[in-house]
């Protein structure tokens, strides 16, 4: 069951947070875009499972389509709507893994790979899951949590403009670095990374006129590092669980 669960989880997060572009999110109310998104999620899941099992993938497709339609057409964009959407998707994935536990083992990869290689494949998916949760998924969560503060800053003018999506990529890089340091057993170096970022980001906004912006950056930084550490702990646990015979 572990391989099936991991394949479905990675397929979901790749489809929802990597293959779904910002433009697709903006025009997702168009039925064709909504269906395309769900097709991509289902296709990635099928590829990772190495299986075209009709029942499991059919249920995955229909439930994902139904929940996304509810979110897009009935729920306002917000953190509660996002969490409800993800909770339903994850509940369906767990239910499918329990109902069809041998899907991955009976699929193409299960036939081609030895037991040891299949365990390595599962470890790879566990690592990929940790990266997905720590980088793009955490980025979306931080954006939704910070949205009320972002609105407060809309009237404030910062001294210089930033790069397009610069904050997103900085967040991905810092959380990726924290994840690598944690998994590499170098937790003490994480404090150095945090201090370095704080110095760089606060260098131009240390005057009292930009206190709001400084506090905004500080909150976002601590949120980012907290989620990165949580991702590291979860990834370490998942890798250990998969490695156990």
From TrEMBL:
Organism: Thiohalorhabdus denitrificans
Keyword terms, alphabetized: Membrane, Transmembrane, Transmembrane helix
Protein name: DUF3307 domain-containing protein
Top-level taxon in the UniProt lineage: Bacteria
Spans traversing the lipid bilayer: 30-50, 87-109, 121-146, 177-195, 216-239
Pfam families the record matches: DUF3307 (PF11750)
């Amino acid at each position: 069951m572990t391989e099936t669960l991991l394949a479905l989880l990675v397929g979901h997060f790749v489809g929802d947070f990597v293959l779904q572009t910002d433009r697709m999110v903006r025009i997702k109310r168009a039925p064709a875009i909504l269906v395309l998104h769900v097709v991509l999620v289902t296709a990635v899941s099928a590829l990772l499972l190495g299986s075209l099992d009709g029942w499991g993938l059919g249920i995955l497709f229909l439930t994902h389509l139904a929940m996304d339609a509810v979110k897009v057409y009935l729920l306002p964009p917000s953190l509660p709507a996002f969490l409800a959407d993800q909770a339903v998707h994850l509940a369906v994935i767990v239910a499918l893994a329990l109902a069809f536990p041998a899907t991955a083992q009976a699929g193409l990869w299960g036939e081609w790979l030895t037991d040891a290689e299949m365990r390595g494949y599962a470890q790879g998916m566990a690592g990929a899951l940790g990266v997905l949760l720590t980088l793009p998924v955490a980025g979306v969560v931080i954006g939704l949590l910070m949205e009320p503060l972002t609105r407060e800053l809309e009237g404030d003018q910062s001294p210089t403009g930033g790069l397009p999506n610069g904050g997103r990529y900085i967040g991905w890089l810092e959380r990726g670095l924290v994840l690598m340091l944690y998994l590499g057993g170098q937790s003490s170096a994480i404090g150095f990374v945090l201090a370095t970022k704080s110095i760089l980001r606060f260098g131009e906004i240390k005057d009292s006129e930009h206190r709001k912006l400084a506090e905004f950056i500080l909150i976002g930084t601590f949120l980012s590092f907290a989620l990165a550490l949580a991702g590291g702990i979860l990834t370490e646990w998942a890798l250990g669980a998969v490695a156990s015979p």
